């Protein structure tokens, strides 16, 4: 088999597995910071500590998997893509090293205090550690998205000759560090990644909470968690719409071939429509079964319904053509899920406001499973970005009609690695990741079944009368109590605590 | 000092940090199966519980810094030693999995499987690191362009395997001494025996490696002629090693631990001196084909940018590493949050 194809498959597989975890921990990190802050502000309310402990355990599991699968990525740049490493080390390497120094030490150090420090440090120190872990995750995403964005829209560098033992070859060398950091796509993409992470974290919280609500367990905890998750998800989904629009404009400007692939645009068009569905056929060079809003793409990109949008007829000679079908479908899947999220979170907010949210069992069931869509949307976004950049690993700039400064994926491979080596490592990764995935599901399920630890000194009977006055939330929960299906009495007795083995 | 040399030193510091810190982690893993029962195993596991993850970051950052500062050497080593690095990856993944998941379920078979996984992956990772150091000392086949020109088996020689065994003995001893600081009672008493055994094995390997290096790798000692002050490090290294049995005999584990940390840092330093000015030494025509601090480096601009990053980052890193170690000081107490 072809070493290029195998290496691409290996990279795609390992990074997509890795990318299940970082967005989740970034999103959950925000949840933990919120819970920690509330625990400081309202020490009399034990539910924040209960929630913080529960979500911290879930966070720890996901964080560990993110770390071990992340080391793989760093190794692969050197093992499989050595020519790429030689070409971009001067630029890309410094962002990666900055991630190590500024983010990883911060995260891993304070993670210890976050996970193991409950009985060892005070509430304030613990909150500080929570904050630092969350900030570490954000720092990490900043550097890695900057590095990736530089590959998409490279600036601040020059191609220079480098001599080794009398042989000359070319590589990218940095000329302007801050131009590299604030490359044209970096900020847009960073915001998009963060919002995607918040959405995933929020939907993850809502999924588990909705499940508890449907099963009638840990009701107070589940209601509060669900409400918090819903607010975060609603705001983030709406903001993601704006972010996605801004990013698409940037792609149209800096990576026109990627945009053409996202929209299945084989021919340049005045007044291009925005397709909702379609089936790109690169052989026939047409978008089959297209359902589109006329003129909308031109409006979105240029604020002008008659503006011209370039297709592959004008672009292919300079940029080549990525696998259009994959890019088109991944992009449309992501956008479609985004639209669904906006509609469903707004609907849920409406029901929350009406106070009937927790009666809508169908909607709760939807939220139990919607987290899978959130994972899919994050992965699809990654595919759009990375497959859309092909056949380039570093995108070229067009100077006098010819691509300059880029690096083709086919030229980025390790010179000395053979196909059977890559195949062997893919098989090994396949096996070990399958094991990791099964363990992840088993432990996650175990933790969810275990649920939050009961609050010490409270028996899970009916709630006392002296609750604070009915707010939005109480109005909603009141309805649940009257519905008869979801009552606190279903709460299992304190028999599910892990034995002496413990559980974090 | 020019920027290239500065980055060679910084890489050395990262490597020494990794070897000293993850060294005792790996050592605890190698000793893990010698514990008597589940509680003892959990005490040993939790002695590194909150910190092993942070210790491994030293390796990740070493890799990132090498990528940035010496991309040629990074690309050559990682792609050339493909299979070896994949094995390192798998042992690191498996190790993390074993630590993370071992205590999550009560089942005996589950725990046994991960106990063995923790031991085997710690052993394999240590052995591979040692073999890599041995192969780097001996030199590897490189072509004119600085690309690796051999297979997996070219890394394996009697010398590199012996260095691998040295690494295993050294880390096992280091881990046993670390555990003396974190345990109490009967377990601690028995760990003294482990520390002595570890020291004995280490001493044998150390002497063999020293003799073999002097006899078969003349390049390794060539720099001592040019830089006589390096003999001071050799002397300090020998004194640190000699202080380990002395401190063990006097039941001063903290001093023994400080000595074994110093000994490991000394080894990394000697490794650097032996390589200098090469990063990857070619076994064929070492003068013409090796990757050095100069021909394998990034541009001056990047080395400078990175130096600024390191200067800002280093005090922060040291501060919170210190804080975390301080938070979890003292003997291990199992609580509901333990592994």
From TrEMBL, chain A:
GO biological process terms, semicolon-separated = aerobic electron transport chain
Membrane topology, record value: Multi-pass membrane protein
For this protein, the parts annotated as crossing the membrane are 12-37, 58-75, 95-115, 127-146, 191-214, 226-243, 330-352, 364-385, 422-444
Cellular-component GO terms for this entry: cytochrome complex; plasma membrane
Compositional bias (Pro residues) spans?
Answer: 453-463
**Does the keyword section mention Cell inner membrane?**
yes
Location of the protein in the cell: Cell inner membrane
The UniProt annotation puts the region (Disordered) at: 453-504
Main location (coarse class): membrane
Query: One MF term from GO for this chain?
Result: metal ion binding
Metal-binding found in the keyword field: yes
Full protein name:
Cytochrome bd-II ubiquinol oxidase subunit 1
UniProtKB/TrEMBL annotation, chain B:
An individual GO BP term: aerobic electron transport chain
Sorted UniProt keywords? Cell membrane, Electron transport, Heme, Iron, Membrane, Metal-binding, Transmembrane, Transmembrane helix, Transport
Where found in the cell? Cell membrane
Q: How does it sit in the membrane?
A: Multi-pass membrane protein
Which InterPro entries does the UniProt record give? Cyt-d_oxidase_su2
Q: Which GO terms describe its molecular function?
A: electron transfer activity; metal ion binding; oxidoreductase activity, acting on diphenols and related substances as donors, oxygen as acceptor
Q: Name one Pfam family in it.
A: Cyt_bd_oxida_II
Superkingdom classification of source:
Bacteria
- Which GO cellular component terms, listed alphabetically, does the Swiss-Prot or TrEMBL entry include? cytochrome complex; plasma membrane
Give the transmembrane ranges.
6-35, 80-97, 118-139, 159-181, 193-214, 226-244, 256-276, 303-328
What the record says about family reads: Belongs to the cytochrome ubiquinol oxidase subunit 2 family.
Full protein name: Cytochrome bd-I ubiquinol oxidase subunit 2
